[in-house]
Design goal:
CATH class: Alpha Beta
Order of helices and strands: EEEEEEHEEEEHH
Distance between the termini: 46 Å
Shape: globular
Strand content: 35-45%
Oligomer: single chain
Structural class: alpha+beta
Helix content: 10-25%
Radius of gyration: 17 Å
CATH superfamily: Nucleoside Triphosphate Pyrophosphohydrolase
Largest sheet: 8 strands, mixed
Length: 156
């Protein structure tokens, strides 16, 4: 049961989950570092930003750097927080934190967890809007992160 603003109880399903991070990673050559991975919910691969869960005791910025390195083997020279959104405020308590990672360079091979099938793809950052329009990028939270980057002038 969840109480409304007047204190009346209502039956609701609330999903408790850790916060997540997305990283819009850009190389100095203007390439975006993306990952392609299988998503069981839609039984298909999706093209996404590197990202994942914020671990206990970790800040979102620390999680962003860790996820970028683990999933892609890239590290960033400069970081900037782009914003936070609520993935599904009707059902979930958590937030998605989006970061811009600039001057990215590969320093190692990806370090994937067991069962992860993540493939790194470098694409021109200037092509991200066209990839959305063409239906190549369809993950809702990636679209939210792209919008946060766009309204801050990152994709211009």
């Amino acid at each position: 049961m969840v109480a409304d603003p007047a204190g009346r109880p209502h039956p609701r399903v609330i999903i408790s989950a850790p916060d997540w991070v997305h990283v819009l990673a850009l190389t100095s050559e203007g390439q975006a570092v993306l990952v392609r991975q299988f998503r069981a919910g839609i039984h298909a691969d999706t093209l996404e930003f590197p990202g994942g869960m914020v671990d206990q005791g970790e800040t979102p910025a620390e999680a962003a750097a860790r996820e970028l390195a683990e999933e892609t083997g890239f590290v960033a020279g400069r970081w900037m927080a782009l914003g936070t959104c609520h993935p599904n405020a009707a059902l979930q308590e958590n937030c998605l934190h989006t970061f811009l990672a600039q001057d990215c360079r590969r320093t190692s091979a990806p370090r994937l967890d067991a069962g992860e099938d993540v493939r790194v793809e470098l694409v021109p950052a200037a092509s991200l809007r066209a990839r959305v329009a063409a239906g190549e990028i369809t993950h809702g939270l990636v679209l939210a992160s792209l919008f946060q980057a766009d309204v801050r002038g990152v994709l211009r």
